[in-house]
Amino acid sequence: MDENEFIATGRRKEAIARIQLILSDKPDIIINHKELNKYFTRDDLKAIVKQPLLLTKTMDKLKIIANVTGGGIKGQAEAIRHGISRALVIFNQA
């Protein structure tokens, strides 16, 4: 793990998300090797995932890589949100 990479885990119900938050010139959100728009087709689920990035105004600075397992599709989105939030806490402390 280098100084521009922050790792956290998020959970919601049966879903578990492992998050890598990377400082990058090319911001992107990758979930299980797919782009956000291909993994989640519903706009409300995309908004759930993006929520912590929009609140902290870091959407254009970070690349997010998420591996999520278990649960339903909404639980997975909420687990990713939880993991991103926890990674942002670590990022802000660094």
Structural commentary:
The model has no long low-confidence stretch (mean pLDDT 95). By secondary structure, the chain is α+β, with helices and mostly antiparallel strands. The chain has a single domain, classed as Ribosomal Protein S5, domain 2, CATH 3.30.230. Helix content is 40%, strand content 33%. Helix 2 runs parallel beside helix 3. The two termini are 13 Å apart. It is globular. The protein contains 3 helices and 5 strands, in the order E-E-E-E-H-H-E-H. A hairpin with a 2-residue loop joins strand 3 (28-31) and strand 4 (34-35).
Helix content: 40-55%
Please give the CATH architecture.
2-Layer Sandwich
- Rg computed from alpha carbons, rounded to a whole number of angstroms: 12 Å
- Class from helix and strand fractions: alpha+beta
User: How many distinct beta strands?
Assistant: 5
Taken in chain order, the helices and strands follow as EEEEHHEH
- What percentage of the residues does DSSP assign to strands (E)? 25-35%
- So how many helices? 3
Poorly predicted runs are none
Task: Provide a quick synopsis of the model.
The chain has a single domain, classed as Ribosomal Protein S5, domain 2, CATH 3.30.230.10. The chain has 3 helices and 5 strands; from the N terminus they run E-E-E-E-H-H-E-H. It has helices at residues 36-39, 43-55, 73-93; strands at residues 5-12, 15-23, 28-31, 34-35, 62-69.
Descriptors for this entry?
single chain, five-stranded mixed β-sheet, alpha+beta, Ribosomal Protein S5, domain 2, globular, 94 residues
Draw up the topology in text.
Layout: E1 5-12, E2 15-23, E3 28-31, E4 34-35, H1 36-39, H2 43-55, E5 62-69, H3 73-93
Parallel strand pairs: 3-5
Antiparallel strand pairs: 1-2, 2-5, 3-4
Helix pairs in contact: 2-3
